[in-house]
Amino acid sequence: MIKVKLFDQEHExxxxxxxxxxxxxxxxxxLVDIKxxxxxxxxxxxxxxxxxxxxxxxRA
Length: 60
What we know:
The protein is an alpha+beta fold. Helices cover 23% and strands 53% of the residues.
């Protein structure tokens, strides 16, 4: 069975930590793929909000 684990953080270092904690719990041979995305939203007064997200696809 194929499963996914979704991650969403405001800072890329937080995303990295979360993903690494999850990856430590699964065997490497169960890993299928990792998808990564960054979204930036322009707020008022030149402030930008970033969203770092990833999806780990793995075999259960």
